[in-house]
Amino acid sequence: MSSVSQTSKQKHRLSLGWQIVIGLIVGIILGVIFYKNKMAITAMQNIGTMFIGLIQMIVLPIVISSLTVGIAKMGDMRKLGRVGLKTLIYFEILSTIAIVLGMIAGNVFEPGAHVNIHNLQATNISSYLSTAKSAGTGSLWETVMDIVPTNIFSSLSENKMLQVILFSVFFGLGTAAIGPKGQVIIDLLDAIAEVMFKVTNWVMRLAPIGVGALIGATVAQMGLGSLKSLGYFIFVAYLTMIIFIVVILGIVLKIYHTNIFDLFRVLREEIILAFTTASSEATLPRIVSKMEKFGVSQGVVSFVVPTGYTFNLDGSAIYQAIGALFMAQAYNIHLSLAQQITLLVVLMITSKGMAGVPGASFVVLLATVATIGVPAQGLAFIAGVDRLVDMGRTVVNVVGNSTASIVIAKSEHDFDDSKNTAYLKSIK
Q1: Among the residues of 205-313, which ranges form H helices?
Q2: Which pLDDT score is estimated for 239?
Q3: Is the predicted pLDDT of residue 404 greater than 80, yes or no?
Q4: Does the pTM exceed 0.85?
Q5: Higher pLDDT residue, 376 or 55?
Q6: Please, what sign has the CA dihedral across residues 347, 234, 43, 271?
Q7: Domains along the chain?
Q8: DSSP for 143-201?
């Protein structure tokens, strides 16, 4: 009798996705109620920050344990090199397509052509300007050298993902090289990964509260009225991102015999979480777990997804292209084809060179617009809605990196189709 009642309770329990949606709606209502209320905004920001902090606490242990075990099980230096090269080439191609799509949308829809720049409210961007200046002083060699960790504990404390990935790769290869003795390390790290995934499930129960607080703070700060003056810019950015996900990523997945809507079904909770928190890290632990269940091998997913959060920011690439053209149009600066090609090349370089810099998408824009004659101060007019667009581009980044793991796994014949079929049936 008790088991029957427990089953009925589970049937009537709301799924996490619906709980997050409810949290989103409640957050918007609270934001409207407490518009410009500093105490309420601070309280909601602190609650949201604590939730993101709990997720970030889990990310690095999962990356280290999953990636080390995955590389150790792969155990082949040549295969790892091949996977790494394929991943970087794929990232570069998709990022370039994203920039080109953003530039096409900017030219076709002209989001800045009918905007009176003098009627827009400027936002303080002094922190972004200082970040762009310091980030821009680094040479290519400094960027490459920064990937190599001198102290892994320092890398962990400073959240330097690429350094952690490089260490984990070498640690995994070393574990594979010592043969049976390394099995102890593999078993230990497997257990650590399982513990971290269990902790992730616990933390995710707080997601509706964290999501409500974050979106509430955003609405309370900006107000719904901020959508009026830059509504068309936001609309064009979101439309372009939707086209990129459904059409571009849909075609890529179709080539590899996967349906984009199956991926949406698998990632529906993570998509909502990414949208509301505007944080890719908030979804990383569950993306790694779900892509493994989807059929991607542990070695591929634990390498591709964390690396993608630095090198494969397709949503950010779209935003940067549209943002740059928006500002040029708003200032009545006509860009020739040669100038737009220059913009494309500069965006390709700066978006990679400044990955990992705080506020990277906006910093890249600051470093880019000067090359097409747009005053850097002009970006102060779109800084106010940056958070709203950031929510959309985070979703694109999450779906894009999940797609990348499928593509690389299938290209390496490292995808379990039977596991994929069973998992898709289980979530219907």
Answers
A1: 207-222, 226-243, 250-255, 260-266, 268-277, 284-294, 298-311
A2: 95
A3: yes
A4: no
A5: 55
A6: negative
A7: 14-426 (1.10.3860.10)
A8: HHHTTS-S-HHHHHHTT-HHHHHHHHHHHHHHHHHTGGGGHHHHHHHHHHHHHHHHHHH
